Amino acid sequence: MSVFRKKWLSAAAAGSAIVAAALLVAPPAHAQGWNVSQGTTPSINSSGWWALTYAAGLEGAMIGLGPCGGSSTFIAEFRNHQFDCVGWRKGTLGINQIVRNNAHSLASITCSGATTWYSPNAVGNYNYVRGKQWGTLNSALANDNASAGRGNLC
Asked: How many domains does the chain have?
């Protein structure tokens, strides 16, 4: 077998291996979203947009935005944020706990709705509620969330 033929066969085999490996790699996953709206958000004196609570059913402490009078519309990373506001029901449960991977309920205080995501910077699977609605996060995001924010302005 000639040197040229050996090099050609070797290159062809390497190229085939690369193509085969590329075919084994799964296509990128697309994020999934779930509407978890369960009811109308209870009335609260607020100048904010949304809230996350420590426990299911809007129970426990809330993140210090939304009903606590915060003005932020989006938090890109919960790692350094705590539930520092007394909530609607059993309001001190979870007070001062880190928000990341500890939230169970999401509430929209205005007509804009609210969303929480699995990863920082609004990336990955998400749960959302419609305007002036609240909901308990589903199994994909309960105790597994990293960012949140309000929906579009109404």
From this structure: 1
